[in-house]
Amino acid sequence: MSAEKQFVPPFASGAGALSGASAHRRTVLIAGGAGFIGSNLARRLLAQGDRVICIDNLETGRSANIEGLIPNPDFAFFLHDIVEPFTVKGPVDRIYNLACPASPPKYQRDPVHTLKTSFIGGLNLLSIAEKKHARILQSSTSEVYGDPDISPQPESYRGLVNTVGPRACYDEGKRATETLFYESHRQSHVDVRIARIFNTYGPRMDPEDGRVVSNFVVQALTGQPLTIYGDGTQTRSFCYIEDMLDGLTALMEADEVEPTIFDPVNLGNPHEFTMLELADLVQDLTGAKVKRDFHPLPKDDPLQRRPDITRAKTILGWEPKVPLHDGLIPTIEYFRDEIEMAQQKIGGVA
Ligand code: NAD
Ligand code: UDP
């Protein structure tokens, strides 16, 4: 058994940590804080005065996402795989578990580790939550519904998931971890929240992530054919990152409601698009005159996905505000800058 590491954030000790004006400042642990959603969340929380501890093994996250935060005295980064047990010195008030590769090619690269990240990583974080009396939010996923045979998908839908397909390491890892969180609440009264996140996009996605928005935008900006899997009529519902952060933080901060705040909540944008419609929009907004290459649809790729967000609207008063067209504009700008920076680096080396 590996020894438990202890991480000591610079703000963990000292008289000022939880006294006087600092008394209301929260310390928030973000597992997966160097990833797309995590690094955006870290900025949001720091801006509102929280202290942030980021734990990440940089498996799919990028140091570029958090470089700008390192000088901030309220931010601490620890390179660590959450599958290995760890503790954190000092108070922790909130834990967001965003650690897990989210892109299909990335989570399928080491499927057993993906399962361990969800379940054993989740267990390790729950143990910290229990010891610190912290509230903990699990980033679950629309993939718990698998390839759904109803649309839209409400939380009550139990899903259609293949336990032995290429996506199962992600889907079943997330499903089992929902159960782990649910039982940790029932058995040990851990204050849990479970967000079922639907496809989210925006700045700080990895250009080489392999998901559809990053692929199409990078391909359009670099003059390559757009890669369409299947015939492109499969659907997804895309949520802009700022809307997702509003939803995640609202769920985290929501106090108990009837019937229960501890059950899963769908977070996503209910506007549904085919991949061909997404390709059209990306081409319109970038002005790219590129071809489309059609590839086989990957096994078990869901044909439709659209959240029913009635529960989030009712208990959180939350719904997304940013239409896909409007969210793609800053996203395209971000990828344009990333591509330029990468080209400058290559130019500098040559
Ligand atoms: P991402 O891949 O950009 O970020 C995941 C982060 O977790 C990365 O920084 C990665 O290095 C880190 N990580 C992975 N395994 C780890 C481990 N064992 N120990 C420590 N760190 C680890 O993905 P994202 O889009 O930011 O997604 C964040 C979370 O939200 C994930 O749990 C994902 O399953 C969930 N989610 C995302 C979406 C989406 O559309 N973005 C949809 C549904 C669910
Ligand atoms: N997809 C595509 N071209 C790409 C990448 C993905 O047509 O270059 C398709 C993929 O097959 C899926 C949809 O786009 O039907 C969304 O894929 P993504 O990997 O972004 O997310 P997920 O399948 O996990 O929802």
Automatic annotation (TrEMBL):
Lyase recorded as keyword: yes
The record's keywords, sorted A to Z, are: Decarboxylase, Glycoprotein, Golgi apparatus, Lyase, Membrane, NAD, Signal-anchor, Transmembrane, Transmembrane helix
Q: Which GO terms describe its biological process?
A: D-xylose metabolic process; UDP-D-xylose biosynthetic process
Name the cofactor(s) required for activity, per the record: NAD(+)
From the UniProt record, which GO molecular function terms apply?
NAD+ binding; UDP-glucuronate decarboxylase activity
Q: Which GO terms describe its cellular component?
A: cytoplasm
Pathway linked to the protein: Nucleotide-sugar biosynthesis; UDP-alpha-D-xylose biosynthesis; UDP-alpha-D-xylose from UDP-alpha-D-glucuronate: step 1/1
Would you indicate the residue range of the signal peptide? none
**According to the UniProt record, what class of enzyme is this?**
lyase
Query: Is-annotated flag, keyword Membrane?
Result: yes
Q: Where in the cell is it found?
A: Golgi apparatus, Golgi stack membrane
The UniProt record lists the EC number as 4.1.1.35
Provide the NAD(P)-binding domain boundaries: 29-327
Q: How does it sit in the membrane?
A: Single-pass type II membrane protein
Which domain of life, per UniProt? Bacteria
Q: State the similarity comment.
A: Belongs to the NAD(P)-dependent epimerase/dehydratase family. UDP-glucuronic acid decarboxylase subfamily.
Protein name as annotated: UDP-glucuronate decarboxylase
